[in-house]
């Protein structure tokens, strides 16, 4: 979330998320729905939920994978 905040987005976290999104970031141009994992990418079932999610046309779906010791995540855009 801090990465998006530094780019001027507002953010909100979905605490104890049981759905596909851990956080949402938005600005006046778009909404970004995100899933964050530490050390791994989401499993098959999680990725299916993310891929099947229906969002507004101006929204993006992303997955961030944080590896231990790294200062930035690996980011995948999901279509």
Commentary on this structure:
The mean pLDDT is 92. This protein has a single domain, classed as Trna Endonuclease, Chain: A, domain 1 (3-Layer(aba) Sandwich). The chain is built from 2 helices and 5 strands; from the N terminus they run αβββαββ. The protein has helices at residues 2-6, 44-52; strands at 10-13, 23-26, 31-38, 59-66, 74-78. By secondary structure, it is an alpha+beta fold. The protein is globular, with a radius of gyration of 12 Å. The protein has a 5-stranded mixed β-sheet.
Average pLDDT, all residues: 92
Q: DSSP strand (E) fraction?
A: 35-45%
Coarse structural class = alpha+beta
Number of domains: 1
Strands, total number: 5
Strands ordered across the widest β-sheet: 1-2-3-4-5
Order of helices and strands: HEEEHEE
Which topology does CATH recognise? Trna Endonuclease, Chain: A, domain 1
Weakly predicted, low-confidence segments: none
Which overall shape is indicated by the principal axes computed on the Cα atoms?
globular
Which sheet architecture does the biggest sheet show?
5 strands, mixed
CATH class: Alpha Beta
Q: What is the helix tally?
A: 2
Share of residues in helices: 10-25%
C-alpha Rg (nearest Å): 12 Å
Q: What would you say the CATH architecture is? A: 3-Layer(aba) Sandwich
Question: How far apart are the first and last residues' alpha carbons, in Å?
Answer: 20 Å
List the helices and strands and how they pair.
Layout: H1 2-6, E1 10-13, E2 23-26, E3 31-38, H2 44-52, E4 59-66, E5 74-78
Parallel strand pairs: 3-4
Antiparallel strand pairs: 1-2, 2-3, 4-5
């Amino acid at each position: 979330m801090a990465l998006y905040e530094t780019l001027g987005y507002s953010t909100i976290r979905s605490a104890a998320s049981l759905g596909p999104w851990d956080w949402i970031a938005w600005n006046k141009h778009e909404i970004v729905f995100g899933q964050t994992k530490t050390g791994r990418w989401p499993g098959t079932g999680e990725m299916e939920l993310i891929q099947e999610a229906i969002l507004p046309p101006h929204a993006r779906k992303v997955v961030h994978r944080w590896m231990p010791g790294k200062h930035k995540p690996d980011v995948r855009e999901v279509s």
